[in-house]
Amino acid sequence: MKFDVEYISFFVIQxxxxxxxxxxxxKHYQTMDGDDYxxxxxxxxxxGEFTKTAKRKAERNPKSEQVPxxxxxxxxxxxxDLDSNPNYNMFARLRxxxxxxxxxxxxxxxxxxxxxxxxxxxxAMFIVRAKANQYFDEPFLxxxxxxxxxxxxxxxDERSLLxxxxxxxxxxxxxxxxxxxxxxxxxxxxxELKIHQSSHARYFEDFLKFVEYEKSVxxxxxxxxxxxxxxxxxxxxxxxxxxxxxxxxxxxxWAHSEKRELQEKWDQSQVIEAAxxxxxxxxxLEMKLKLGNMIVKALLADxxxxxxxxxxxxxYVVVLEGDGLEFDRGISxxxxxxxxxxxxxxxxxxxxxxxxxLAAAALPY
Length: 365
Description:
With about 375 residues, the chain is an alpha+beta fold. The chain has helices at about 35-40, 40-55, 85-95, 100-115, 160-170, 205, 215-235, 240-255, 270-280, 340-360, and strands at about 5-15, 25-35, 70-75, 125-130, 140-145, 175-180, 190-195, 210-215, 285-290, 295-300, 305-310, 315-320.
């Protein structure tokens, strides 16, 4: 997929002190048209970033809350058009600028807006308008940001700048915005854009205040589980309003707590019924749990079928079943085991639990 640059403006952002507490400033270095860009040293290492950015995959509902690439959608009030969104208008002006001076002015506006974002780092910023002539007559807008290391105090000239930018690109810390979003080659979604940034950074999300992002799969599933819980509580405590209110408060605290522990509130049939609704929507939904210092990773669909949770005294037991048992690389004596029957294991676990109870009872108070 080839992109032909129409205009490109690049700036240097300098930040003094931690999180810009000592001041922030931007400097415009150059704005070029397509011909000047093709003849410049900049094109040699920036050309490949257009295709890489366009082809970078992003999910509307990512599997994790911390993902580097996201699809954003412009927010408008009900009944209003896209041009009521300030972020869209900022991009639209760049896409429709008729002269190089006009493009430079709108690019400077974008950089100035970006400078108001919190915790930005110094570096080079490129605002590019380019066409994928194979598919579209309308141009795309790319915003590239290369963070410089703190030890880079100043950029003295263009050659020095290009050397630093090349280092930043090679270090794979390039952040990017592509507008409009291209879900597939030949498709253009003007309501959406695609951002790419390191998972811990939120510069672009802070910069684009009128863009929203779909919830991740864990967030969606959490909302759904909380909905199941609320519905269950409403039914069980229908005639006991005070108990219902107390239970709903407890469940709300549980749903938003960082420490996730087994609640022991629902029987297995209720859990399986709720889980089956979620699995029906997303069959590959993952489930992770930690038992002591052991971590189990499975599919939610495995619960009640190949993954079982039980209790033995005050301790929890997780039983996994499958057709084969494989080990990671590296030899261990466990690989030589002749497995005992399950009944024998259960008997041994019960005997162990009884011995521990007797030992605890014999301890002096």
